[in-house]
Amino acid sequence: MNPNQEHGKAPQHFNALARGLHWLMAAMILAMLFIGTAMMTTLHHRIALIDLHRPMGIAILLLALLRLVNRLRSKTPRLPADLPFWQVLAAKASHWLLYALMLAMPFLGWAQLSAAGLPVVMFEGFNLPPILPVSPTLFAWCHDAHSLLAKLLFAVVLLHISAALVHAWIYRDSVFASMTKSGNQKN
């Protein structure tokens, strides 16, 4: 057991798995947002982008599940005591919204392809099973929901990055360091 957990003390940093998954998934999610946008704006590269988008989305889903389990099983650093209540509430709400979106987006993409009767090809010779019956109505609903949530994800990611940079450059508190394991703090 972690000594911080044993005595009820919150750690100063997220654990190594949380930090690794955070930065890996940050890169993957940013890439997916740009790949998704490019898929909608190009015909020439559309198939190649879709072939990249599908397995990357499922990888994000699996990593998000691992990340959620790690988050629920691990103590997390406390936010600075001098943060206003609304910032604490916004931080907690945005983190849980990010988890919800990291799980919902891949499921909606998978459901959308299933409802269209298209295989979810992970790689040559391996397809995921459909999770919805073929239905134009379900396809349209999943497509619209996936598109809407992608826009929400983009907005939440921008807010998350902005808040992280405010903590790193303006407040200069422990928030950014808790995910980078930098600064003068000891772990």
UniProtKB/TrEMBL annotation:
Its main location: membrane. GO terms for molecular function: electron transfer activity; heme binding; metal ion binding. Keywords: Cell membrane, Electron transport, Heme, Iron, Membrane, Metal-binding, Transmembrane, Transmembrane helix, Transport. It is found in: Cell membrane. GO terms for biological process: respiratory electron transport chain. InterPro entries: Cyt_b561_bac/Ni-Hgenase (IPR011577), Cytochrome_b561_oxidase (IPR052168), Di-haem_cyt_TM (IPR016174). The chain crosses the membrane at residues 21-40, 52-69, 96-123, 148-171. It comes from the Bacteria. Residues 13-180 form the Cytochrome b561 bacterial/Ni-hydrogenase domain. Its cofactor is heme b. GO terms for cellular component: plasma membrane. It is a multi-pass membrane protein. Belongs to the cytochrome b561 family. This is Cytochrome b.
